[in-house]
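ok so I'm stuck.
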Amino acid sequence: MSDIEIRDDRAGGRLEAFAGDEVVGHIEYFVLEAPARALVPVHTIVEPEHEGKGIAGSLARELYGIAAREGVVVAPLCPYVVKWAARHPEEAPAAGPELLGAAVEWLKTHPGRF
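replied:
not stuck anymore, here's the structure
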């Protein structure tokens, strides 16, 4: 895993894991503005030849790290990130139901985004 670099493409809504110049995994997310600012991961994808190397976990950990540094919450809709957060509660504070509901509603009003 030491040869993996994670970069945040905020404009593109992707947190990307690179091995050299190749994207080997990513989390697709959006930024929710109301009722509070939050990062909302929707999908986590790791290229098949790179599965089992801890890339998805590193991406989830970095997403929560970014949120902590920015003083915002992560409201996970991605099943992988939900499971990762449940296994790492000390690193992944839970989002409230109102925030999760707002994230689901945002997705419904932006059907072509993901």
